[in-house]
């Protein structure tokens, strides 16, 4: 239950769990939907994930091998990314011949998140070899594998993922016997998985059998726009909002700690603190928005560095190993995705893709680009939630219309908040195995 | 023997720098069923703790000793780090050492049966009670010191030399402390952020505290384990491996070029909040210059 919060705590750098501070003088309504973007239950499910009592059965042991693999096409690695020279993926091998399930993580995540663990456990337990990969927007992927360094383009990211998958599979030990290959992913990783399958449909280098998208976006930029809006509404714009959030959070935690009997600020204390102070919609929204913003900061930095667009990184004097990055970090924290699109993404792709315009780039980053396959090929599936906060009504309808009976829409779960849940896992396994009959919602 | 170990380490570190196209590292298997069961237990314990706290709160809300902190008391988001350049290089060294030496060894250790690892972990936890007990006395927190003494006595006897944490089952939960906290209690500020080779993020005060803890262990020499050079090497290494195997942190798992900033920020804020709790009766010892944090 709290794994996700702890992940948020660690990653956000702002102990995003206890955000009650915002509520004290929040401008937002405390009860009811905070933002108009998502309801209370959806926000809570998104932060907490599946409650432990609702999780599908998991196997006792899942073997794990970490694979670090160099990509021959990799661009020169900037000094500041000294640690990302090779792509890191994880593999769990079945003893005998088995189908291989490849899982792609969501925006900004590596291939070993708690969400991935839930999926890996379920798939391994059902007899799959499992390979888990980072999102193409994860800095480790951008540096080691991306052929552009500018992440977030569906086709380009799928191209890089597809090449990486071929290389990884070719390098698996000879003992691994793969009967079929399926791909799946959550959030942005879902869209990535589907585009990879569509690419493979033409090139046939892997022979991918089925693809399942879990909580995918329909339009990348409209989904991200919603998350940016969530940030502005729950935290404020710019770095000042973050500073204010930090101060309130610090006060809240310190005051709690002063009256507690704990000797250390450790997991025990933070669990208790999270439950005490994470209460309102505004706080849950802030936790979600902040997690996404941290991912964006990394992507923005890498893109600016590689595309030499000079927004925060001087292209002539890129930072080196011992240099402080605090100022750059501070500047980027205050920047929304729209600025990444305007100042890094669009200029780069307009310069490198003949005829590209801002409008065409937005249009190319929708699932529409594979609409024919989604409609006609019985091997694409979707699992999503009616209250997923990255989709609006028309986007959900588009998915339902396009996928027909190959979509499972759950009433509740927010964004990724029901992954690992019994029904979700049972449906996922049915979809991957070709047993899905569309009526098990 | 020592020189052979050092040579092997250097070779490993150099080998690490050589280009390898593919590297396979076998990790300890995941145990999802056990993890889920543990999550369920945690959730239940949390609900129980919340209900207990609520009941206590209803019964008698204790008057706070001090007015609560306000945003004016909050340290800056910046951290005092005058040795940043050196720290960043040390951070990289530690990350590489972790990746190529420390973690592979800890992962190998992770393949031992769970009861064996728990026994080792409890054993070192029990030894550390001696340091905690001493430091609680130095901090003037005699109740805590008595608890550490009680834990040590119970676990060393009923827990068969510390292999089992019997005291925890008797509701005497571990609450380790060290000389760094004592220094804080005595009014020393955390000082500059410091990344210690092989160890990790710390502050100058933590560095001195570590040396103090080592000195205390050496002086008391519990069970004759710290001074006999043949045993103390083995004890030190096993203790380090056990510690590493029990820390979930992985260098560069964020993939972020700002990981150093994040770790520094979180580490020092955690420390400052602990200081707030430590000086709840005398905040004059706490407030350093307003910025940057830690100074």
How would you characterize this protein structure?
The complex is a heterodimer of chains A (441) and B (295). In chain A, 47% of the residues lie in helices and 12% in strands. Chain A has 441 residues and is α/β, with parallel strands linked by helices. In chain A, helix 6 crosses helix 7 (188-203) and helix 11 crosses helix 12. The two termini of chain A are 24 Å apart. Chain B is mainly α and 295 residues long. Chain B contains ten helices and three strands; from the N terminus they run αβααααααββααα. In chain B, strands 2-3 form a two-stranded antiparallel sheet. In chain B, helix 1 (2-17) packs across helix 3 (84-109), helix 3 (84-109) crosses helix 9 and helix 4 (114-138) packs across helix 9 (229-245). The longest helix of chain B has 28 residues, at 32-59. Chain B is globular. Mean pLDDT of chain B is 84; it is low at 14-18. Chains A and B meet through helix 1, strand 1, helix 4, helix 5 and helix 9 of A and strand 1, helix 2, helix 3 and helix 10 of B.
Radius of gyration of chain B: 21 Å
Largest pleated sheet of chain A: 8 strands, mixed
Q: Count up the helices of chain B.
A: 10
Mean pLDDT of chain A: 87
Shape of chain A: globular
Number of strands of chain A: 8
How many whole angstroms does the radius of gyration of chain A measure? Answer: 21 Å
Q: Given the helix and strand composition of chain B, which structural class is it?
A: mainly alpha
Total beta-strand segments of chain B: 3
Average per-residue pLDDT of chain B, rounded, comes to 84
Distance between the termini of chain B: 42 Å
**Strand fraction band of chain A?**
5-15%
Percent in helix of chain B? 55-70%
Net shape of chain B: globular
Beta-strand content of chain B: 5-15%
Order of SSEs of chain B, N→C? HEHHHHHHEEHHH
């Amino acid at each position: 239950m709290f794994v996700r919060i702890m992940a948020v705590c660690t990653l956000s750098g702002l102990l995003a769990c206890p955000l009650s501070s915002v509520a004290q003088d929040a401008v937002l309504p405390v009860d009811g939907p905070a933002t108009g973007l998502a309801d209370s239950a959806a926000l809570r499910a998104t932060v907490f994930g599946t409650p432990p009592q609702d999780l599908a059965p998991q196997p006792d042991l899942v073997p794990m091998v970490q694979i670090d693999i160099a990509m021959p096409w990799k661009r020169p690695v900037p000094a500041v990314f000294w640690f990302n020279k090779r792509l890191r993926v994880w593999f769990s091998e079945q003893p005998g011949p088995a189908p291989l399930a490849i899982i792609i993580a969501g925006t900004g995540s590596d291939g070993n998140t708690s969400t991935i663990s839930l999926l890996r456990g379920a798939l391994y337990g059902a007899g799959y070899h499992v390979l888990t990969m980072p999102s193409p927007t994860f800095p480790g992927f951008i540096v080691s594998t991306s052929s552009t360094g500018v992440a977030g383009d569906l086709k380009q990211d799928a191209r890089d993922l597809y090449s990486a998958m071929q290389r990884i599979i070719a390098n698996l030990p000879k003992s691994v016997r793969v009967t079929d290959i399926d791909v799946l992913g959550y959030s942005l990783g879902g869209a990535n998985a589907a585009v990879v399958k569509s690419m493979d449909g033409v090139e046939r280098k892997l022979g991918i059998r089925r693809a399942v998208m879990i909580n995918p976006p329909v339009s990348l930029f409209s989904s991200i726009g919603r998350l940016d809006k969530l940030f502005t509404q729950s935290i404020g714009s710019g770095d000042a909002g973050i500073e204010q959030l930090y101060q309130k959070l610090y006060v809240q935690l310190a005051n709690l700690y002063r009256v507690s009997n704990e000797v250390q600020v450790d997991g025990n204390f933070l669990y208790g603190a999270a439950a005490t102070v994470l209460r309102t919609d505004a706080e849950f929204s802030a936790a979600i928005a902040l997690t996404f913003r941290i991912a964006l900061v990394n992507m923005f930095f890498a893109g600016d560095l590689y595309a030499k667009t000079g927004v925060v990184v001087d292209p002539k004097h890129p930072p080196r190993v011992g240099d402080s990055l605090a100022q750059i970090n501070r500047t980027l924290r205050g920047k929304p995705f729209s600025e990444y699109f305007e100042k890094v993404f669009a200029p780069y792709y307009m310069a490198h893709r003949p005829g590209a315009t801002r409008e065409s780039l937005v249009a190319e980053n929708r699932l529409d680009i594979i609409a024919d396959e989604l409609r006609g090929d019985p091997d694409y599936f979707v699992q999503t939630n009616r209250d997923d906060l990255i989709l609006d009504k028309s986007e959900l309808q588009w998915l339902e219309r396009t996928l027909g009976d190959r979509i499972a829409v759950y009433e509740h779960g927010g964004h990724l908040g029901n992954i690992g849940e019994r029904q979700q896992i049972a449906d996922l396994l049915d979809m991957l195995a070709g047993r899905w009959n569309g009526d098990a919602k | 023997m020592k020189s052979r170990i050092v040579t092997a380490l250097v070779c490993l570190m150099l080998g690490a720098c050589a280009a390898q196209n593919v590297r396979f590292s076998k990790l300890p298997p995941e145990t999802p069923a056990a993890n889920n069961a543990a999550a369920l237990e945690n959730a239940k314990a949390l609900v129980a703790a919340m209900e207990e706290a609520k009941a206590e709160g209803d019964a008698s809300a204790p008057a706070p000793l001090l007015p609560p902190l306000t945003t004016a008391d909050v340290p800056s988001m910046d951290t005092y780090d005058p040795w940043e350049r050196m720290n960043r290089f040390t951070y990289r060294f530690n990350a590489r050492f972790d990746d190529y030496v420390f973690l592979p060894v800890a992962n190998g250790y992770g393949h031992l049966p769970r009861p064996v690892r728990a026994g080792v972990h409890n054993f070192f936890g029990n030894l550390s009670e001696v340091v905690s007990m001493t430091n609680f006395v130095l901090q003037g927190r005699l109740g805590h010191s008595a608890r550490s003494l009680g834990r040590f006595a119970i676990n060393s006897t009923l827990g068969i030399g510390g292999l089992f944490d019997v005291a925890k089952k008797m509701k005497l939960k571990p609450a380790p402390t060290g000389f760094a906290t004592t220094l804080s209690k005595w009014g020393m500020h955390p000082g500059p952020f410091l990344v210690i080779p092989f160890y990790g993020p710390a502050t100058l005060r933590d560095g001195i505290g570590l040396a103090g803890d080592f000195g205390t262990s050496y002086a008391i020499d519990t069970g004759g384990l710290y001074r006999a050079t043949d045993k103390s090497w083995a004890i030190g290494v096993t203790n380090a491996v056990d510690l590493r195997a029990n820390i979930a942190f992985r260098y560069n798992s964020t993939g972020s070029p700002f990981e150093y900033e994040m770790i520094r920020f979180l580490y020092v804020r955690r420390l400052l909040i602990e200081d707030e709790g430590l000086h709840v009766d005398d905040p004059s010892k706490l407030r350093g210059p307003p910025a940057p944090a830690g100074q």
